[in-house]
């Protein structure tokens, strides 16, 4: 028995007329009659009671009619769901991001993606770049917003935006009276930085800029999250650097100042495993690319 046998039977059962059903199926009436007879022979059951003037379902035919409709309905659902999965419209996307991404580009991207693909289950976790790499290695994340450089043998990267980092000072600090600072003004300060293993390139970049300004930074603590570093600044433990868009988030006992001249900058990128060809990931990347192009046009305008 084939699916088309069920479709032929359902058409006749719905119309109770071989001529109309044949027309709907784009078959000749004799051909449709032969198909139904072959189905009855295969089942060894009479499905229709026929007279010269009418066609009626037998009791067995009524039962088969309900079951056949259910099979065809489930088959169509399976086909449509499979097509939606192939188009990246259904499934799951596991997303990781740095704290700064959550305060900058990520909200609009996620909102647009969820509006377009409401049936995709989105799970989101904040992780530093170091932890994201571990998650990628263990197949725990599909897409990540992180800071290069990273292992590009494992991942493919797409740059999104460049973040300028600014200085966070305790509110009562003597440098807080100045609108802008230079790095050499920080020579005698206690620095609170992220652990070097979390982002060696950026850590070394900060140290290198300080050395160019004529001093080596006095790093008193290394703390993973920007929020905790800012909290320590508020407690008077030292100064730190944060992305510019984080200056309005956090403790009011902290003052933020731009740096004149050389300032730490960091490239934010979106990453995925090179061997991940999920349609959902591709759709998410398309949204990111579309919004990036839109943002670029607006900035030019």
Automatic annotation (TrEMBL):
What keywords are annotated for this sequence in UniProt?
Answer: DNA-binding, Transcription, Transcription regulation
Q: Which residues form a coiled coil?
A: none
Positions of the HTH lysR-type domain: 1-58
Q: Which GO terms describe its cellular component?
A: protein-DNA complex
Segments traversing the membrane: none
List, alphabetically, the CDD domains matched: PBP2_LTTR_aromatics_like
Q: What PROSITE patterns has UniProt attached to this entry?
A: HTH_LYSR (PS50931)
Task: Offer an example of a GO molecular function term for this protein.
Answer: DNA binding
Q: Which family does it belong to?
A: Belongs to the LysR transcriptional regulatory family.
Record protein name field: LysR family transcriptional regulator
Q: Which organism was this protein described from?
A: Aliterella atlantica CENA595
